[in-house]
Specification:
It is built from no helices and ten strands. By secondary structure, the chain is an all-beta fold. The N and C termini lie far apart (30 Å).
Length: 120
């Protein structure tokens, strides 16, 4: 059943098929998940306090003009991590994870959703 948000340009925010992936070596390790939404589980390696790490998400659903949203779902101490998209390109986006507290080693689950957008 098509979402009420489906447009001729592709799927937008609404009901989409999802995917899930887990990082393997470190919080800087890139991942591949080819779905318009889903969850990324980071490696549980330590991240120093007041530090950031960026990793690339390879995703065939993403174009350079899309808007990718991310949020911390679980696994993190309350208020310890902030996740944001720091770059978007055709076929990928970069997620930056900031540790706002002291050194922590946790697997953080990050939700993502791709909003299809038309280039102006």
């Amino acid at each position: 059943m098509a979402s009420i948000f489906e447009t001729s340009a592709g799927l937008a925010i609404g009901y989409t098929s999802g995917g899930a992936v887990t990082q393997l070596t470190s919080k800087a390790t890139g991942v591949t998940v080819n779905a318009p939404s889903g969850a990324i589980t980071t490696d549980d390696a330590s991240l120093a306090g007041n530090a950031e790490v960026t990793f690339t998400v390879t995703n065939s659903s993403v174009t350079a003009s899309d808007v990718v949203l991310v949020s911390v779902q679980s696994g993190a101490s309350t208020g310890l991590y902030l996740a944001f998209v720091s770059a978007t390109a055709a076929g990928s986006f970069d997620v930056t994870l900031s540790n706002l507290g002291s050194t922590a080693g946790e697997a953080v689950v990050i939700n993502f959703a791709v909003m299809k957008a038309a280039a102006s």
